[in-house]
Structure formats: structure tokens, C-alpha cells
Amino acid sequence: MTDSRNVRPGFTVCRAPEWSAWRGFVLAFAIGCLTLGFASREANAAKYASIAYDANTGNVLFETFAHQPRYPASLTKIMTLYIVFELIEQGRMSYDTLVPISAQAAAQPPSKLGFKVGAQIRLIDAIKALVTKSANDVAVAVAERVAGSEGRFAKLMTKKARQLGMKNTTFRNASGLPNDGQVTTARDMVTLGMRIQDDFPKHYKLFKTRSFTYRGKRYKNHNTLLGRVTGVDGIKTGYIRASGFNLVSSVKRDGKHVIAVVFGGKTARRRNAHMRSIITRALKQASTRKTRKPILIARPKPVMRPLLPTQKPIIDQEIRVGRADQPPSPQPAIKIAKVQRHTIGQGGTFFSAPAARNDDARRPSTLQDQLAALLANSGIADVQQEQGSSEADFVEPKRSRPQAPANGGAYQIQVGAYASQQEAEAQLHAVTQRAEALLNGYSMRTFAVTSGAKTIYRARFAGFNSQNATHTCTELRRRSIDCFVTK
After folding, report:
1. Burial of 178 (0-12, 13-18, 19+ CB in 10 A)
2. CATH number of the domain enclosing 220
3. How many structural domains is the chain composed of?
4. Is the dihedral of CA 135, 137, 139, 142 positive or negative?
5. What is the pLDDT of residues 449-486, one digit of tens each?
6. 3-class SS at 422?
7. Is the dihedral of CA 464, 470, 473, 478 positive or negative?
8. How do residues 436-458 score in pLDDT, each as one tens digit?
């Protein structure tokens, strides 16, 4: 029963029936009121969703907006780890597999470990970094090691989601960083949380890791319910501004096993408090009888094509993922010749911006990914580490751009590589139109690189110092403009 008199906007007050005499009933009723109150506040922002699932029986105990699309944020990394665990079980990777850090990985925004380009991390340490620190640079590096590029890995993630029964989930990256096309539901996340335990019980234990020490620095798990709520054994937090604070929790207590999901908390503390109430309510309804039978899917055939001959991905055949009525558009076939050594700046072509026109920006070809291996050292400061630790898995970067140095700099940002100079110039102009404030004051250049009978034209913005270059490239990626930094 709800009393709407003298109630502050956004809050729900529940009044227990006068005939309640049983303590257990009153407690359950109070928990229900708290749940409704939280839902009413969070639902206004179209971010809230929750569900509680009995892992012993397979029954949904209760749910709110559980089938509505939501942004997963770093819950995405659960699927990243699912694929890694599967490859380990297949013998294609091991805990000792070395994962290289590319410039694309190093330039990811926090939360991150803050690697420099060319560094390597053992897979077991990468897994722990994803579980505890929710490191975005590590997520991208793992994706590239497995599939050659993060884009290919995201297709693999979406295909795996369909195999697991996650019908309303689409992945666009391995980290959970903002992308309008990356969506899921609370119901799908319950499915993933259950399946990763069913399929990989040995590896799932890593989600219990409460802290992780790497190269002398200790990282605490963002999931602070570990060790504070009896029976909680994982699994993952998530946060971006568009999603609010998310959490998937698994709890085993007194022979019961519950998996719960919360999306859209306004703060980590409120989300955690709400998760506690959901767990308490769910355990009262959960069964101790194990009647659910896990359904294991067939192990997939190898997929994806290697990106670089010097660093073969684990997955080695190409796949295409999409709805049957929306076949993916064909990509142009591009043959990549070996790139000869050359000096940047000698032979670079300067040109003035062409007259404004309405050409759409052409997406960089797969050559952009091929050239990523040639990047010079670059890095981006871990804002989260410098400003103090935060529970959030993603720290929104500041929007302001550092001022361009008066005398320019030695760093450049490449935004594409094309078969003709005209295409490269058109790409530079289109990117300028989309990010004029970011690129104002920097020069546009094309560089011709010839190998045999093949010539490619690199489209670059020049005149950056290291800090400006990494910051600007990060902001361009936030606008879905592919880029990397070179010197």
C-alpha cells in the first residue's frame, strides 16, 4: 500500500498493513518498499533496471524493466573474460600468454593501468586487472591479441551473446566505454553472469579477487560488496555517465544461489545499498533444491583473420555477425604491402582546407588498423590514479583541450590511409568539420608511402606535443573517429 500524502517528489513511502504481526512479514514488506522507492527515483532517468534470478531453479524471482535496453558500461568486460576463459579451456591461450600493448590500447581513457606502447602483460595479470581495476587499456589489448582488432573482437562478442541466448545485447567494444550502439538488458546480464559460472567454474573464482598488485602498485576491486555481504563471490561493476552505476552480483548462502543485476544507480553507494536489499529479498524466496540443468553450448570454430603477420591473433578466420535481414555492407578488398622505412616530414604534402562541402566522412579502411603496429611511443596519463582512486570504472575526461603549442610539436594524429591523395584530403576536411574546436590551429597533411607499384596516402593532423596528441585522439575516438598518434 502506498501513501502519497506529504511525500517528497521522487520518493515512495510504504505503509505496512495494520494487521501485520509477524516480524518476517514486516521485514520483507520493508525491503519491498525500499526496492520500490529506489526504482521510482532511478526510473525517471530511464537508466534503472533490476532482476533477481534463482540459479538453483532457473526461476526469475522478481524484475523491474529487466527487458529494457540499457548501456552495460564495464559489465561488457564479463563477456571479454568469457571469451578469454573459453580460449584457455580450448588450449589456445594460457595464463602465461603475453598480451602486447598497442598505441590504441595505451590511449584508452581511465580506468587503466597506464602502459606505454610496446609493453606486455601476462594474461593472468590482464584478467585480474579487468576484474579489479576494470582497466580499459588492458581490455583493448586483450581484444587485439585475440582477434587482431577491437572491432573484430566486438563482433565475436556479439556472436557469442547470441549463442548464450542474450538476444537483446550488442557489443561494440571490449571495455564498455561509451558507444550508442552497445546495449544490453538486465535479463541478458543475468544470463551471462550465470553462464560464465556454469561454463568456467575454475576461472570464475578469479572474480573473488579483492585486490591485485602489479609492478608494486595495489589495485582494489571496485566491487566493494566482496567481503562485506556474506556469500557474495563476484562478479562486476560498471559505470559510464549514460548508464549510471551498474552491478552484477552472485551470492551463495545456506545452499541458495542468487544472481542479481542493478542498472542505473545514481551513486555507487546507493547502488550497493539497493543490491543488498535485492539480495536479502531474493534469498528469502530462493530455493535450496537444485533443479536447473546447465546447458552447455558447442565450442565455436576458429573465427577472425589475423591482423598482423608478426603478431597473430588467437582467432584466425573471419566472421560476419548481424541480422539476416540486415547483411553487413561489404568492405573493399585491400592488399597490404610491406611498408618501407621512411622519414616523416620529408615529402609530406601541405595543403589548405578545401571549400566547404557536404561530403560525409569516409570511414578509415582496414589499412588504418594495419598501420597501428608502426606507432611511436605515446601514452596518456591515468587521470584516475593522479586524482585519487574512484570506484567508477570510467572517468569522464574533461572536455577542454590543452592549447596548441606556439611553435608546434613533433607528434601527429593519423585519421586514415587511402588509395588517393584526394580521398585523404577529403577525410581530413570531413574530420575537421566534425571536430573543429579540437583541431583548430593544427595543420593538415598527407603523406605518400610507396612500396613497389602501390602508393598509399596517410591523412594526418600535425603540430602536436605528446600530451595534446593523446588527449585529442582520445576525444576523436569518443566521437567515433578512428585515429592514432605517431611521431
Report:
1. buried
2. 3.40.710.10
3. 2
4. negative
5. 887 778 888 999 999 998 888 889 988 888 878 888 98
6. helix
7. negative
8. 888 988 999 998 888 777 888 89
- Cell for 358? 557536404
Secondary structure string (H, E, C) spanning 96-114 = CCEEECCHHHHCCCCCCCC
Helix (H) / strand (E) containing 302: none
The residue annotated as part of the active site, out of 47, 50, 77, 256, is 77
Domain match, 353 and 454 both: yes
Q: Report how far residue 178's alpha carbon sits from residue 99's, in angstroms, rounded to the nearest whole number.
A: 24
443 is catalytic: no
**Overall average pLDDT of the 282-295 stretch:** 92
pLDDT score, position 265: 94
- Annotated catalytic residue, options 50, 102, 111, 134: 134
Q: CA neighbours within 13 Å on the CB side: how many for 14?
A: 17
The C-alpha cell 538486465 sits at 186
77 is catalytic: yes
CB 248 within 8 A of CB 186: no
Single out the catalytic residue among 50, 74, 243, 365: 74
**pLDDT (tens digit per residue) in 28-56:** 444 444 444 454 444 445 899 999 999 99
Task: Output the average pLDDT for the chain.
Answer: 77
- Same domain, yes or no: 90 and 212: yes
User: Does the annotation count 149 as an active-site position?
Assistant: no
Contacts of 256 (CB under 8 A, 6+ apart): 54, 56, 283, 286, 287, 288
Count Cβ atoms within 10 A of the Cβ of residue 30 and give its class: 0-12 exposed, 13-18 middle, 19 or more buried: middle
Residues 92 and 178 in one domain: yes
- 104-124: pLDDT as tens digits: 999 999 999 999 999 999 999
